[in-house]
Design goal:
It comes from Streptomyces musisoli. By secondary structure, the protein is α/β, with parallel strands linked by helices. It has 5 helices and 6 strands.
């Protein structure tokens, strides 16, 4: 089984990413379930705006799209900015939108029988809102969202320290992240054994 984690931080490499630090906890838990994990830091790529799988010369999204299709598990990891998902996360969701018109050999949307989860960091409140927005978009595209397939970290409303600057809340976020990994893996295995059929015509 394979998983893809798309880190939607606004910080290009090699800057330290708080979102990546929390994602590493979930990645470790997934590997503990014998899942192979690939990661993408979207801001490092030339991902053009649009809702097609390939937006032309220089567009680096098609390679990410291939990674999505080769994975049973997708995790979107985003910081909270202004109480919302990052602009990079929104760009990723818009490009995933193309999958709505893509089907497999059984006429199923290609997102069917894949599970997805959400990870959020930020030094302000709004994590549940970000989780809801991203989860809703992924469900629209066709991904299955298991119960409690998310984790987050923040220290309440208003400005404050970042994830890597303060140890408070780390234990809870890690525990929730391990549960998230377990729920994603077991839901993916259940779908592999009993896949969703194509939508009725």
């Amino acid at each position: 089984m394979r998983a893809l984690v798309v880190n939607c931080t606004l910080k290009p490499s090699p800057q330290t990413s708080n979102t990546e630090a929390l994602a590493d906890i979930v990645i470790s838990a997934l590997k503990g379930h014998s899942v192979e994990v690939d990661t993408v830091r979207a801001v490092d790529l030339n991902i053009r705006p649009g809702v097609e799988t390939d937006m032309g010369e220089g567009d680096e999204w098609p390679a990410v799209h291939e990674k999505v299709l080769s994975s049973e598990i997708l995790i979107i990891a985003s910081p909270t900015w202004l109480g919302r998902p990052s602009s990079v996360a929104q760009r990723v969701l818009e490009r995933l939108d193309a999958m709505l018109s893509e089907t497999d050999h059984d006429d199923r949307p290609v997102a069917y029988n894949r599970v997805a989860g959400v990870l959020v960091t930020g030094n302000e409140d709004g994590a549940h809102h970000v989780i809801s927005e991203i989860s809703g978009a992924l469900a629209d595209i066709g991904f299955t969202i298991p119960g409690q397939a998310w984790t987050y970290w923040h220290l309440g409303p208003g400005p404050g320290p970042d994830y890597l600057d303060d140890d408070r809340g780390h234990e809870w976020a890690a525990s929730t992240g391990r549960a998230m990994a377990s729920n994603l893996v077991h839901a993916a295995r259940a779908l592999a054994e009993n896949p969703l059929p194509a939508p009725p015509s």
